[in-house]
Specification:
This protein is mostly helical. The protein has one domain. The protein is 63% helix and 0% strand. Helix 1 packs across helix 2.
Length: 84
């Protein structure tokens, strides 16, 4: 698909599956009919969970999910890139 732009994380998702972004879209459409982007959403959630495991315990009153959401997105993307 010419002229389509993809986010950095989607490109990393495709790379993690050994595919181009266009190819991973087609593959995911086969694996999750009617669930466009389901594969990416599941992969993203797993990457965030794994990233959260690398963080120290949050301070009292802050849950791990909040701790992750307060992290600079660029830091998370770099961590994901380093995992692939």
């Amino acid at each position: 698909m010419a002229d389509r732009e993809y986010s950095e994380r989607f490109k990393l998702y495709a790379k993690s599956r050994g595919l181009t972004p266009d190819d991973v879209l087609a593959r995911d459409d086969e694996e999750w009919p009617g669930g466009k982007m389901a594969g990416f959403v599941l992969w993203s959630a797993e990457m965030l969970r794994r990233f959260g495991e690398t963080l120290p315990d949050p301070p009292p009153g802050v849950c791990k999910r909040d701790q992750i959401s307060l992290t600079d997105p660029g830091v998370i993307t770099k961590w994901i890139r380093d995992q692939i």
